[in-house]
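Q: Joint fold for the lines below.
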Amino acid sequence: NAGVTQTPKFRVLKTGQSMTLLCAQDMNHEYMYWYRQDPGMGLRLIHYSVGEGTTAKGEVPDGYNVSRLKKQNFLLGLESAAPSQTSVYFCASRLTWPRGSNQPQHFGDGTRLSIL
Amino acid sequence: KQEVTQIPAALSVPEGENLVLNCSFTDSAIYNLQWFRQDPGKGLTSLLLIQSSQREQTSGRLNASLDKSSGRSTLYIAASQPGDSATYLCAVMDSNYQLIWGAGTKLIIKP
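A: Joint structure:
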């Protein structure tokens, strides 16, 4: 059981380049999330999805786009990378049943992204 | 706006000691409070989830308490071991069903 898998694990980009981070989960979870983690700060929600074909903005959505064409995959795109987007990106997923909002989130191992 | 604070930012204790990690939040309108563990270079692992109607949850040597009225939670670790070394994060689920995170406490258990 792989759980939540993020690819790639590391990436270095130049300012202005674009890329897509992939998150895949094999637990049939409805909800999926993208967070960023910066030193000395808590995780911040970028975008999330409550089901296939749906996406919504989180706390820090600017500069990012997402898509959820299949239930098991959640993609995070950077259209024109900026140094301020240097961070560690985490994907998470969770069930909504049987305990609704009291289901814990399951996390991938993260993608370390540096923008030069 | 909900804010979550964890104090201290780092803690180093000898093996075998019992210890307490603190988490405070500014808005008592929460659905739950969750404690996670993060190992270097790894993702987060859920440790305990306390629903808003509960006062505490226990798992093995871990016990988490919740006092909504005062905006506080503690994570108690009994008989600490070197393998407990990690960063511990707390998060509260707010009225929009989003998790608001603290910055974490980095714990080092010295053999």
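Q: Anything notable?
A: The first strand of chain A starts at residue 4 and ends at 7. The CA atoms of residues 36 and 89 of chain A lie 4 Å apart.
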